[in-house]
Amino acid sequence: MTEEEKNAWAKAFQYAFQYLDDNPWDPLNNPKNYAIEFNGKYYPNKQILKYAEEYLQKNFPEFLDVPRLSGGKPINDFLASKGANAVTLKVTNESVNELQKLFDTFNPMIYNLGWYSLLKKYTDIMQQLKSEVVAKVITSYEILNQRFKELAEDNNDDFLDRYLFIKKNGLASISQQVIKIDNRDQIRSAVNERFSRLEEILSSIDKRKVYNLTHKLVNQNALAVLQRFTRAMFPNEFTSIDASNHFTVLKKILRNQFGIKLKSKDSFDQQNEVLSLIDYTDVYKAQMFFWALKSGDIPSNSSAEIKSQEMNHPLNQILFGPPGTGKTYNSIDKAVNIATGQSGTHAENKVEFDRLRKEGQIEFVTFHQGYSYEDFMVGIKPNTDREQLTFKPHKGIFYSLVERAKANYIAHKDQKQELTSFDTVFEKLIAPLEDGQTIEIPMKGGNPLKITKVETSGIIRFIKPGGSSNTTLNLDNLREYFNSTKKFNGDGLATYYEPIVKHLKERQQPVAVRTALKKFVIIIDEINRANISKVFGELITLLEDDKRMGAENALSLTLPNGETDFSIPPNVHIISTMNTADKSIALVDIALRRRFEFEGYYPDYNALAEPSLTILQKINEAIYTRKKTADFLIGHGYFMKGEPLDTILIKKIIPLLMEYFSGRTEEVKEILKAADINAEYSTLNYRWHIHAITIDETHK
């Protein structure tokens, strides 16, 4: 940040502080988790950002380059980067904590991946269009609409259709109050003839002004449509519930199930108050969460129930994200946790992982373009052991794992009746010895044998029927006689062993015994590199939770090798990893998406030290600016192997950038330059050379 920009932001902050001092904010907007501190006073970070933007727009528009920010922490981080004193506050509201726990376990991509993708897409586009209108890049509706088509990558799409007229536009589905057909023509004419009407709406930083101006433009009380449009412009101010009747249902749920009663009276303030109940970094997840809560798709659980749910690992999951973000690394930890119910450090987990692989409870496979159904399931393979070419049946890695898991599952389900063990019966028999009593064992002659003591060494002391106590028995021998692993040999001591064994067996009780159920795990690395439909074949249906053995809708299939009634037991877990730089999750086969839970992995800058942290952050910012997606970011893992920084850049990062940008050396050079790396590509030896790495003083 230049000195000029730093001064501009300092003045903007002063303006925001002064404005909020002169115009106290509503107590409902009091900072909860994150705040900006100035002179010992804590200000809500959203309000500071709002009025700082207002000041910059009027006085320093050249520095008004605020990214789309979601939630308290990203806003705090951004304002801190501009010089503000951002602080984290302690949360004490247990009701809100309960709501937060539910939100943290909510996965919008599992709930509705299609909605999540469209919601993000069209809200992001609106933010881009807003910034270009403010910058005077867009000066007419024709330019606006053409720019919208480019960003949407759809020449048949239309700005007004998308944001105002369509019932189901990606942000939300509205069944009533849609804009009338006659009104649509009038609106088109109005914005074409006088773009300033739409320009005033898109350049405003006041949500109420946007709502009122849009209301005036459409000239109709389509309130849900108006709020949906306003939400696209101010995503951090609204839930995805645009219709007032649906929002009333949400308020009742918050009050009745969480004890949270909204303090605001104004509908806009209530929307903002609800959204501020949770701490989020993904605004689209936050918007969708409250719709799911309102719809009854998320039960309100106690903390214990939530913890219990977290222990129930999904049967099928895909860890997705750009390269180097720790997907394979974390898959090992997850596999061990699923298989054993325990988890230690990664090093400890890796030792356990290797042991479980040897025992056949965990398998690991990497998919590639040539990977087939025969490799994964069943088929035939050439038999190279003989001179004449023959073929033999082949069991694939997944089929073999399922066989082992199924045997364990059936054994677990098949409850057996067994008699109590020697140790159980013997412990109960000698329990009275603790109270100083003796144990009488009936003998054929009439008088009993009396056990007086069992020593820790295994010596059994007893009194013979005749009164002598000089003889002892051995506990290990008694156990072997009881279990029939040793036969009585007719010696003198057998006279005493036999009646004790007989007495113990008479005390045995039948007990139900189950084989312990084990969880079997297969890790599929790089799942999207193979032709998934061909590799899984008919298995795709059997993967579903309710199609597994023992489930309500259990299914079995006939395999190509003729085996009938093949099914997958519920103790088989699939963990897959997917590199989004190879294939976006949006392009993954719908049948597969529907059956897997998705967990995103992205660069963790906190795992790095300087200067690697700043370099990676700047490289990723430059990538995102060009690619407009997080799929092609570079992960922190490349910088965590102890190699010199220039080696990492030359051998790992630059080749990846060359792949991302199709070998365009100038573009790669510009990306490196954005990260303060002076690099050149030599056409003499066709190699990259790094001349200097210069990091801002604050990062040294």
From TrEMBL:
Entry-linked InterPro entries: ATPase_dyneun-rel_AAA, Methyl-DNA_Rec/Restrict_Enz, P-loop_NTPase, PH_domain
Domain of life where this protein originates: Bacteria
An annotated Gene Ontology molecular function: ATP binding
Positions of the PH domain: 1-18
Protein name: AAA domain (Dynein-related subfamily)
